[in-house]
UniProtKB/TrEMBL annotation:
Domain LUD stretches: 104-212
Domain of life, per lineage: Bacteria
Entry protein name: LUD domain-containing protein
PANTHER family, alphabetized: LACTATE UTILIZATION PROTEIN C
Gene3D superfamilies documented for this protein: NagB/RpiA/CoA transferase-like (3.40.50.10420)
Species whose genome carries this gene: Streptomyces phaeoluteigriseus
Pfam families, sorted: LUD_dom
Length: 213
């Protein structure tokens, strides 16, 4: 008997006394929980996102669409970034004001090559105000998942208010579960048993978010 057959046999025995008309899990579990906590305006929702991003130690910037290129150039210059990793679908106008060398997101890039990149700039799929979370789904303006996990500095552009929702239930309605989703709540960090925080363990040590409205 294979391991698979053994496991399925245990499942069948466990379900042997369950009535045939028993409601399914989807029917039995209530879904009447709150879709969001509190009644906020669009501006208040964006403010809450900025507050929670900062609470997670992300660096938050705000600018208009016309000022985005200059804002990005200033951030890269302040970082001393000489190279910037660029997803294939990123709007080229975003980086029009920077002199940093563009590095393409290619399938052949090794982790060592990605680690030598100074910064990466991406868009996002959606952002969640109540949790301060940014979600990437691998779209062309976000690139492969690894480009936001290996370089030490990630700049993520969020279009407000179109890409901002209040809660996790709302964000789930906008995402395709078949896509490679990356959920980001602040820079990569972990804590040991003594609660000493270490950043940059399994992702960028520095996360900067630009809220473009």
């Amino acid at each position: 008997m294979s391991s698979r057959e053994r496991i399925l046999g245990r499942v069948r025995r466990a379900l042997a006394d369950v009535p045939g008309d028993e409601p399914s899990y989807e029917e039995a579990v209530g879904r009447d929980y709150l879709r969001e906590h509190g009644d906020r305006s669009v501006e208040e929702t964006v403010d809450l996102l900025a507050e929670n991003l900062a609470d997670y130690r992300a660096i938050v910037h705000r600018c208009t669409a016309d000022d985005l290129a200059a804002t990005l150039a200033g951030m890269l210059a302040a970082r001393g970034a000489r190279t910037v990793l660029v997803p294939p679908g990123l709007d080229p106008g975003w980086l029009a004001a920077t002199d940093a060398e563009r590095v393409a997101d290619t399938a052949g890039s090794t982790p060592y090559e990605l680690d030598r990149v100074d910064s990466v700039v991406t868009a996002c799929a959606v952002a969640v105000a109540e949790t301060g979370t940014i979600v990437l789904d691998g779209s062309p303006d976000q690139g492969r998942r690894r480009i936001t996990l290996v370089p030490d500095h990630h700049i993520c552009v969020v279009r407000v208010p179109d890409q901002v929702v209040s809660s996790v239930p709302q964000v789930m309605e906008r995402l395709d579960p078949a896509r490679p989703l990356t959920w980001i709540s602040g820079p990569s960090a972990t804590s040991d048993i003594e609660l000493d925080r270490v950043e940059g363990v399994h992702g960028p040590r520095t996360l900067e978010v630009i809220l473009v409205g």
